[in-house]
Task: structure prediction
Amino acid sequence: SQTIHQWPATLVQPVGSPLSLECTVEGTSNPNLYWYRQAAGRGLQLLFYSVGIGQISSEVPQNLSASRPQDRQFILSSKKLLLSDSGFYLCAWRGGRGDPAVNEQFFGPGTRLTVL
Amino acid sequence: AQSVTQLDSQVPVFEEAPVELRCNYSSSVSVYLFWYVQYPNQGLQLLLKYLSGSTLVKGINGFEAEFNKSQTSFHLRKPSVHISDTAEYFCAVSRTSGTYKYIFGTGTRLKVLA
Result:
């Protein structure tokens, strides 16, 4: 069966420090991968999505970036964190073309990021 | 472009009472519709989805939703709630082709009272 992992689970970072959040998926090949941010009291905002290795689409301009160095690995990064980067970050995957899970997204457990 | 509106930010309801969480969407193309539940500090879990076919969709934990194309709605219902249903519920839409990006509503916090 497929599983999705995110780490760390929680993170407290000072303003101006770098960031690296990792997401990995097991049990599937060539998934579509997504990064969302959930700010306090707000819905989920799509930040990035990827349809394949090295292919990243950005949904909103910001100081975050994403990379997909391997088929089932998706990384969210920042060179210098801002206070406004605080939030709950969720990674999700969707099956690729021909996969039975092509029509829905499956979410990881999330990373709670607090920027002080 | 698509958009999703969840009109109720919070819904308090007594245990064993029925509940309806409202979701309306806007789209110029065909969409898939989803309801997810989020417990505190956890990821999202799929409750149910509408892709095609019967407009009444049954999901996990006794929830169901009805797709109403004329009213562009996809309201979530449960005939009798439990304390354990206390959580945040998100409605989402995606296009039926392409990147299947989700557009989420802002969520409805369901609080079940004893």
User: Anything to note?
Assistant: The radius of gyration of chain B is 14 Å. Chain B has a mean pLDDT of 93. Chain B touches chain A at residues 32, 34, 36, 41-46, 49, 51, 90, 94, 99-102, 104-107 (CB under 8 Å). Residues 4 and 105 of chain B are 5 Å apart (CA to CA).
